[in-house]
Design brief:
heterodimer; A: mainly alpha; 0% strand; B: mainly alpha; 3 helices
């Protein structure tokens, strides 16, 4: 009896390198991502604090200048990003059920949504630059460019992660082994959505 | 997260339709927050309303899309703790700024 158990444990030690079961490494990876997301919230938190402070100090300026933002593009992008969170959740679901094709499809859709978001944002920035509205214009635009710019960087990083997941999925990694990378990558993508959920009303809907 | 050799990753008891429902709820709340921002004028309460709706949306995303609903207490702790730090950061920054008394003339 005891030898069988020992052999069994040893097999796993070879398979995963840590001697822990699949579920433990899966949970540890997820937990690590949640820790990282906490630091991300605080990274944006500094900017949110700056927003709260300057909005409280100059409420009229914020109300006046937010009207220059393109509300339609902002609403459109909000829907795109929410939808991409939905498709990412489905990609995780299908990766878990070892449906390789569906995982590919939904990861691809999520990637395309990220690209659409970036393109719309590009036109928004370009239009602002044409009107000579730069971060140096005033504190509202300084915060607008800083927060949405930092968010944009996160969208790009998320898209790179999705590309990597697509590559791993094409090789059949999640059919043969654990789907943990999809779950953890998904958490990151949802955070990008979470940040935007707050940025959108703060920038586009005030006053 | 107990340290034992579990070999089965726990399945989330979610299905596609519950995700569709979550997405529709998020879309509805987005439409609602845009409409209230444009049509309803309740002064400084507008931003409060917008933040409440945003928080409901964020909670929905975290609970269902990020599976927080199925996570253990430790994950909950580490998900909520940064929000407490964020509260400290914003609250005390505002408190400090608006209670400054000029000492020199």
């Amino acid at each position: 009896m005891s030898t069988t158990t020992a052999d069994h444990t040893e097999d796993h030690a070879h398979a995963h390198g840590h001697g822990l079961g699949e579920a433990v490494t899966h949970d540890a990876a997820k937990f690590g991502m949640w820790l990282f997301l906490g630091t991300e919230i605080l990274l944006f938190g500094g900017l949110f604090a700056a927003y709260a402070l300057f909005r409280a100090k100059y409420p009229d300026l914020f109300v006046e200048y937010h009207k220059n933002l393109d509300l339609e593009k902002g609403v459109f992008n909000t829907f795109v990003l929410l939808f991409s969170s939905f498709t990412m959740a489905l990609a995780v679901l299908f990766a878990q059920r070892k449906k390789q094709l569906y995982t590919t499809i939904f990861l691809a859709i999520t990637f395309v949504c990220g690209a659409i978001f970036a393109i719309v944002k590009y036109f928004e920035y370009a239009h602002k630059f044409e009107d000579h509205i730069y971060p140096s214009k005033n504190i509202f635009y300084a915060l607008y460019y800083m927060t949405t710019g930092l968010h944009m960087i996160h969208v790009f990083i998320g898209m790179i992660i999705i590309l990597a997941l697509l590559g791993m999925n094409m090789k059949g990694k999640f059919v043969k082994g654990r789907y943990t990378p999809v779950e953890v990558g998904g958490l990151y993508w949802h955070l990008v959505d979470l940040i935007w959920i707050y940025l959108f009303p703060l920038m586009y809907l005030i006053g | 997260m107990s340290i034992e050799n579990r070999d089965h990753i726990e399945e989330h008891h979610t299905n596609i339709w519950s995700y569709v429902f979550v997405l529709l709820a998020l879309f509805t709340l987005t439409a609602f927050t845009v409409l209230t921002a444009i049509k309803v004028d309740i002064g400084s309460l507008n931003i409060v309303l917008a933040m409440i709706i945003a928080s409901v949306k964020a909670s929905i995303v975290a609970l269902f899309f990020m599976h927080l609903k199925f996570e253990d207490k430790l994950t909950w702790l580490y998900a909520l703790y940064p929000l407490f730090l964020l509260f400290l950061l914003i609250f005390f920054t505002l408190m400090e700024t608006f209670t400054r008394v000029p000492v020199l003339k």
